[in-house]
Design a protein that fits this description.
With 198 residues, this protein is an alpha+beta fold. It has two domains: 63 residues, no CATH class; 126 residues, Jelly Rolls (Sandwich), CATH 2.60.120. Helix content is 30%, strand content 41%. It has two helices and eleven strands. Strands 2, 4, 5, 7, 8 and 10 form a six-stranded antiparallel beta sheet that branches. A hairpin with a 2-residue loop joins β7 and β8.
């Protein structure tokens, strides 16, 4: 309604300008006005159609967008643990980053249902064998070992898991669990991130 009133007001103004500036007869002026009015309505119709199409396209784009929240963590072990009993929760004490505050006191709690990438590494020297069990709600997901061969070796495993919101994931260790080593750096870690929300 407001657009129609504005259009009428503009046409009235144009009419006044045309009448004031030309000596043509009123019928000629009205003919020009009719043509202008017809063109304006056609233009308005086209604009409405383009606006409708744009809105539909915008809705389609928004529906197809996959918005994955940022969830990621990486934690390292800065101390060595010896004679670790099987089933002991390993608390990685140096949290490199913790986006979403999802890793706390050794346990990763999933904030969303989705597919997650999870990874653990265990570095041990010769003669100090150890093992890791990656657990989800108490059930084994993956397994890795280190220290069973000559020299310093690192055992690692990376997997993709479908997890539900509120699931808890942690690492249990046994044997020897080495944190720092002679070569500068930490070789024992636990990390993960959300790939897709489902």
């Amino acid at each position: 309604m407001a657009k129609l009133m504005l259009t009428t007001a503009l046409l009235s103004l144009v009419f006044v300008v045309i009448v004031a500036g030309h000596d043509e007869s009123p019928s000629c002026v009205y003919s020009v006005m009719e043509q202008m009015l017809e063109k304006m309505f056609k233009l308005r119709t086209r604009m409405d159609e383009w606006e409708r199409r744009f809105t539909e396209l915008e809705d389609q784009v928004n529906k197809t967008k996959i918005r994955t929240p940022i969830v990621a963590f990486r934690a390292l072990l800065t101390k060595s643990l010896k004679n670790v009993n099987k089933g002991t929760l390993i608390k990685f004490d140096d949290v490199d980053f913790n986006l979403g505050n999802v890793y706390n006191d050794g346990v990763f709690t999933t904030p969303y249902s989705g597919t997650y990438l999870l990874s653990t590494t265990l570095g041990n020297p010769t003669g100090h064998p150890g093992e890791f069990n990656l657990k989800k709600n108490g059930e084994k997901v993956e397994y890795n070992v280190a220290g069973h061969t000559n020299g310093f070796n690192v055992g690692g495993v990376t997997t993709v898991a479908k997890l539900n919101a509120g699931d808890k994931v942690w690492v249990e260790g046994s044997g020897s669990i080495t944190g720092p080593y002679e070569i500068s750096g930490y070789y024992t870690s636990f990390s993960g991130f959300l790939v897709n929300r489902i």
